[in-house]
Amino acid sequence: MLIERCCKQVRKGYEQILSELKLGKEVTLFKRITAGKAPLKHILHSGDRLILNNWQGEIPSFVTAYNSEPPLKNGRFINVELNETLYVQTFRPLKRLVIFGAGDDVIPLVQLVAKLDFYILVVDWREALLTDTRFSEANEKMLIKKDDLFANLDVQDDDFVIIMTHQFQQDQLILKGLLKKQLGYIGVLGSKNRTARLLEGASVPGFVYSPIGEMIKAEGPDEIAISIVAQLIKFKNTELKKVTFYQ
């Protein structure tokens, strides 16, 4: 654990981190540790660019090439190149869960997911359903057009998406639109046969989970919500374990 005084320079660095996270970008912090001195000299690595903050001297080559390397584990390590101690910490934005549909069965789902590390976006074309009273735990609510569902909605490849509008035609339009993207997880409420009909006989891709949720013989909105959350956790944690770290 690294403990440091929160001075103006440190605060500026963490404000930059927060700004990058809000843009959905992963940020890695490299801090130079010098015995008896405050660790103010650091570099932020975000995407394909470096954000320098009070760093003096040559930038380590592994930092400039960081996005082509396996990520480093959080914590101190000795960098041979600099012959000194660096502290590394990676900050990752919350995974976004996009839920198409704002019906009554979505309410317990949002309430459960809100306890996890997800940014929750509920979208629907029915304005009367998208209220703060119904979805106070959602991070964001978006009113979309029924005839142009993706006009103002930019679904990212690393989003988790759930379809549960209970309207066949709308579910079909949503699913077909999402299949044009390279998503890792799409959950569709309903039976396998219904999802097959949504795709008009085309094979269901492996990343489309239907029926959505873990097979626990769930009944009713609350139990179905639990089964969905269990599947989200399983998928998210399985994907995280695929990441290879330098020791």
Automatic annotation (TrEMBL):
Domain XdhC Rossmann: 97-232
Domain of life, source organism: Bacteria
Name of one Pfam family that matches: XdhC_C
Signal peptide start-end: none
InterPro entries documented for this protein: MoCofactor_Util/Proc, XdhC_Rossmann_dom
Name of the protein in question: XdhC Rossmann domain-containing protein
